[in-house]
## 1
Amino acid sequence: MEGLEYSRAWLAYRKTEGVGDFAGSIVCRGGGVQLKTAATELKAAFEAMTGRTPETMEGEDERGADRPCVLLIEEASGGEGYRMELKDGVMTVSGGSCGVLYGAFALIRKLACGDTDFNEAKAPSKPLRMLNHWDNLDGSIERGYSGASFFFRDNKVVVNERTEAYARLLASCGINGAAINNVNVKGAASRLITSEYLGRLREMSEIFWRWGIRLYLSLDFAAPLSIGGLGTADPLDEAVRAWWKDKMAEVFSAVPRLGGFVVKADSEGRPGPFSYGRSHAEGANMLAEAVRPYGGLIIWRCFVYNCRQDWRDTKTDRARAACDSFAPLDGSFADNVYLQIKNGPMDFQVREPVSPLFGKLRRTKCLLEVQIAQEYTGQQRHVCYLIPQFKEILSFRTFNGSERDAVADVIGGMAAVSNTGSDCNWTGHDLAAANLYGFGRLAFDNALSAEDIAGEWIALTYGRGEKVIRNIRKMLMNSHAAYEKYTAPLGIGWMCAPGTHYGPSPEGYEYDRWGTYHRADHLAIGVDRTPAGTGYTEQYNPPLNAIYADRETCPEELLLFFHRLPYTYRLKSGKTLIQHIYDAHFEGAGEAAELIRLWKELEGEVEPGAYLRVLERLNEQLQSAEEWRDVINSYFWRKTMIPDEKGRKLY
Ligand code: GCW
């Protein structure tokens, strides 16, 4: 599946009925590079949809604009927003150069999906819509589940036709930034900001830019030591500050389209300002000053916690770490710094509360970090459509005192840890492409529904067959809930195999050092995070703190995240906690079987290769779901000695 062979994913245009006469010609006004891209893309789409090659006219040439055509107008003052209007057979798409590109893709999408409402004006909900790739220079990908990197191989930067195909996919759904290397910057990756690599990076950034995308890099905070030959990386040291300034002058003159840098500092062994007794703000601001002359951004990650916890230490709570470290620094970051916050306080579990840090930053720019690489949600071997979860997070109210206080109101954009690799279908599982597409669409337009996004993606990928749309949409929309049921219960998380994070190992993390304990014994399970316990609930603004701290008002799907409870505790359903665990696991595995049934109904309706690829993964998912069911249920049965009321087979 690997290499230069790649699919066109949701952009494989096909013959389409009812495309208007305007598809016969394209008239461009404006000279922006993205406008040209838009015209080329429209031409290819119309060709495939109508079987005829449209005539294209450029420049100020007025010919053609008064008969049916698509008129692309670049407005000097326009940004990434666009307007689209169909009048007297002329389809006008206008906006800034990037806006016109988004408008062109919107037009293609409407035609492919059979949406005839052509009059609309849209601007992106947020300025930053990024992918973070965890690609290493040797070509491997940390938490990569879809083949090797297509950015790096053998410590070289790869630029080829796939680079453009990738940028095209991103632009089509509204993504405008991509950080291409792993946030764990080591070895050769520290040298990406040297002349050894800058030439190739410039080529890549120019290709990206044709599609409205800025290239970003992840940075080694200790670069003054690792590549600069200095004796320190202390952010307040004058020689260090001067080194970064010179370095950034060199980097931005070689790669002028560079957007900036993502930094993982003082986290999981990465160097950072702490080593020098300096704060995150001092570290970030030093870099921000160095990139400011070039319009660069510093994206500073908040995934900072003590990853060497002793299980006997019940005072330290990893969930508290981001807020403890960053809330007190609110207001002390430069304005070209964004704090990038993982959606939950732990690490991309299938269910976590929303990070309380979103409610604490009133004077600091921030980004929401999510993960579409399904590290903890089936690793692109299970279907797990994550857009419903992202919707919940965006609409979560922080109660930060503002009138509009949802996460969506607080953030300046979204970043997703990417799920792409050099597999032919880009994402390993064909259906995982819905997460890539969906992330982009949702980041561009926070108001879209997960269901509508799924519908679009299916129509673009598989066509508009009614059953195809109905069944795949059902599969996607139910997949997250199913995964949650057959894995770890009630928000407890971390019952996966340590290291790989695939498959069940209920006590694996219990005997590890990462601070991710569920503390199950024969009587009770869960972590008391109320004021009587670790006090994590107090990091939420009222009334959330009280809601979570009370087991009666705490949302049930998060019950064991916040509370330690006996297995005989009665849930709202009237079931005991232990019976709920048994039932959920049987139900979840049943739902994995249902996915196969729904897919099999589509035999003959989707292309045979894709049909078989997906079927194979669905079979693996079912096997894995049954393993989860059996391992988790037996674990709790043996711990509690309370049998399943329904007498089902437990091991
Ligand atoms: O969840 C953890 C992953 C690490 C990752 C880290 C992070 C890039 O298991 O592989 O490192 O998160 O987000 O920095």
## 2
Amino acid sequence: MKDDINEIIFTEEELRRRIKELGEQITADYAGKSPLLIGILKGCFVFLADISRSIELDCEIRFLTASSYGFSSVTSGKVKIEKDIDFDISGRHVIIIEDILDSGITLTALCEYIMKRVPASLKICALLDKHARRQLPISVDYLGFECPDEFVVGYGLDYAERYRNLPFIASLKPEIYS
Ligand code: IMP
Ligand code: MG
């Protein structure tokens, strides 16, 4: 697996430090509240595990599955939300926990879906933002890092369901995609 890596973009230590800061910021901003964290599967699973443990509040944690990529590194443009929400959102302070924001198509669809269920508030927390690739005007409230315009893997992010268990964020050698 490590032979497939082109370059490490964010190290374990950088991720650890930044996620602790984000958790502290959320803890301060939501003081006295019990936010509902909604993780977007599958890419969020490592980020959510770490950030949730740095949020010192009484949180509820739920998941939604959204997919637009299939086994490709280019978005299909159509977002499939795989499971209808079976938990109550109305009146809750919702924070979406997402691995990476790229075109913005996935998060725009998810925000519309959640807003229909009338939360008290809705914010987005994303580990990475490929701002240069945005197609829809959506912005992140809590951002880990700006990400270069490259396909990246690791720390929950996959290419064809592989590399999610790398402890850092990296780009892959070009020949892996061909
Ligand atoms: P968007 O709908 O184009 O914003 O894409 C967002 C989703 O695409 C993310 O939740 C990821 O699952 C996936 N994605 C986008 N860029 C990458 C990448 O560089 N590596 C792995 N997955 C990515
Ligand atoms: Mg995702």
